[in-house]
Model the fold of this input.
Amino acid sequence: MEFYEITLRGMHKILKDFKEDKYADIVEKCIDLWQKKHDTYCMLQEFADKGRFRTFKFSSENFSSVEQNFWVQQLFGGLVAMMIQLAQFENEKKNISIDFIRKNFGMPTDVLTGIMCTSCGQRQTSLLDIDKYISLPIIAKRIADGLEKGSLDDEIDAVASVSAPEIERERNNARLRTANTNIPVFDSRNTPVCPSCGNKKFTVCKFLKSVKEPVFIPLKS
Done:
């Protein structure tokens, strides 16, 4: 089975697992067209401006937590990005290797997003911001592993259940950096309050990962 079809089947699995049957049926029809005609236009069209996936979002009631909702949304987004990339290569009649995928898909970010108090300038970040910071390389590697080993269903389950061990490991690494930089971390589900002055008005700020020490460097807003 080729990488493109494996990716489509991964998308279909997530949609079925989280009760988005209407959209799973769309992907299933595109899988059928791929098998019969090697057609990629069907799937690409569904994510274009007038496609049925253009504004798609998973129903929040089908998740056990806000945390799972985030990771499944990110995982599906990663599979969509992979599908589009593979479809483009198929249309250009180019071969794509697993080494190419590992080198070029899902590059890690060195920037953590946070908020800054408009009153005293205190910076902080959230648990959700940390998950955003770590999710891309974790998901990219899991997808690449699944494509190479034919185990994409298992990789999907590990991420969708938020049980992949590297998730907590990378969270801890990020939390160590925030602690070393004296950046407070708040629960993403609560309304943020400045720990210094109690203000509730903030502006977005960013932190750059240091390559020399386990800290973040606050960037100028």
